[in-house]
Amino acid sequence: MESVVTYESLTASNGTNSQVLGTCLKSVRMDLFVHISLIPAVLITITLSYLQRRAKHEKTAEKIPLGKRFGIVVPVNFISSYSNRWSYGAACGATATTVFLLFFNEYSNYFNFAAPSWAKALVYLLSALEVGMDYYPFFACLSTDHRLIGCTLGFLYSLCWFCVQLADILQCQRLAHTSIILIFTPIPSLACCLFLVGRFLQLLIMAALSLYKQMERKEEEEPLLPQHLTNYVRHLLKSTPEMSMQNSSKRWNIYTWDKHFKFPTRMIVTAVLCLICLYNVCYS
């Protein structure tokens, strides 16, 4: 079976395989950037964890006095979350290009180190953990209660990823068939990173204005039953008038939009990931 040509398999070995592929000579190496980005990802995680206070008093706090610091920042609530739905979808979409490679055994492109056959499972596990840690700040900066710091760190981190991926694409010297694959394959993840940059910038401006106006910021805990769900149930219980013959053409509509209905975060994320994975499979 012929090997699948993916974006990272064409960009990993810049110096040795560039003459064979005849596509790109690049100074930006995404495999090294994945390793290097682990450092700011860990620093962002530690910073947000320090700011997050723990709700319960643990026995370990008596031995190690931390003042209820270093709580766990929940990345995303898939059960009952309706806030920042498209932002979480973009965060998952930004990870899709790298995570997509994990399902196709393209580990050698990002994690180029030798391991015996019995240690492959451990290597794969470490690879998945490193990739997950690299993209964890996207979600943590969106879900943290400290909006000003979280949006600042998220904006800088997403901007860094966007600039590196954009520079990696624009360094192609010649336009060939493989170069077209190099350009179009990471477009969804690049668009998601750009969306996150704009979203974090918007949230940062809103948080700065709120702090400037000295407005009391309430803790953003979603209620047990959000207001739009209450309105949606009331709308369903109302008696709907029968459709007149003049509007019989509307019966052919597949879906009628309801202003009181909102898709939850889990459905938005699932739809975004499915579309990006389908896009990557088609271009692979």
UniProtKB/TrEMBL annotation:
GO terms for molecular function: retinol transmembrane transporter activity; signaling receptor activity. It is a multi-pass membrane protein. Pfam families: RBP_receptor (PF14752). GO terms for biological process: vitamin A import into cell. It comes from Engystomops pustulosus (Tungara frog). InterPro entries: STRA6-like. The chain crosses the membrane at residues 32-51, 86-105, 117-136, 148-167, 187-212, 263-281. The keyword Transmembrane applies. This is Uncharacterized protein. Keywords: Cell membrane, Membrane, Receptor, Transmembrane, Transmembrane helix, Transport. One of its GO terms (cellular component) is plasma membrane. It is found in: Cell membrane.
